[in-house]
Amino acid sequence: MFASVEEVSSKIKDSGYVIDPVASQIVYLAVHMDKPLLIEGPAGTGKTELAYAVAKAAGTCVERLQCYEGIDADKAIGTFDTSLQKLFLESQSKSINQDWTSTKKSLHTLEFFDQGPLLRALLCEERSCVLLIDELDKVDQAFEALLLEMLSVWQLSIPKLGTVKACSIPFVILTSNEERRLGDPLRRRCLYLRFDHPTPRREREILSLRTGGSRRSELQAQIAGLGMALRGWSLEKPPSVSEMLDLAQALKLLGATTITPELRDVLLPVLAKTESDRQRLLLKEGWENLVFDATRYRDEILGKDNVPV
Known about the structure:
By secondary structure, this protein is an alpha/beta fold. Helix content is 53%, strand content 12%. A 5-stranded parallel β-sheet has the order 2-5-8-1-9. α11 (200-211) crosses α12 (217-231). The radius of gyration is 24 Å and the shape is elongated.
């Protein structure tokens, strides 16, 4: 998938994702050691996006298993298509009595199996895909246990179908927002990364890469500074990187070149996603202080960037 750490870093950045040097090395190791990569951290810190960036950089596809409370093996692995089996039986009605054993066996093959993302990832033949198991912390330990065989020996044991071995080993990324602690058996099978909200300087780099152009560098730095100020303000739902990207787009559409106290009301729907957060941001002094801090962080970011290396 990748020949070197440098290739990981450059290709992922070319895909539009800012990856730090340590994460580049861990991705490289996970690829070449055939190890799943477990990434934990707050929502909106780029965990899911990394899977799509790796897939784009490697020129492959993503098989995504979106986890939720109550998900079962049928959704993750797949199940037999009973309607297709019935249709087959009807078409073979004349020969069934003569060779029922053979007919019964043929009903329980992959041809009659509606494949879920885990099985599709194992059966990907052309090249290894990226398997994203997203928000694993939303499922229970029983579902976690379902993954252990696949993440250990790259096969799935499916009732009536048998054991299906991998045609190619996928690159697996598991994400968790830490709503509950994942079990140790799963952790032992993975390499581990922790994602937190980016520093202002790093967020400015993300904004620059995703929104383009150095002409808006001061505004991008101020947006990154506002992100840091908001995340230090004990909001119920601190803004993620994606929301700061939305803010950058909103400011561009409004023709704004700087964030000012007067823009508070029009920017609130982008930044405040709960009523309690909205009420806090409606406080005049609070919003003005946030804008002041964002401007101060902007100046610090630009000052650091202008220091000769």
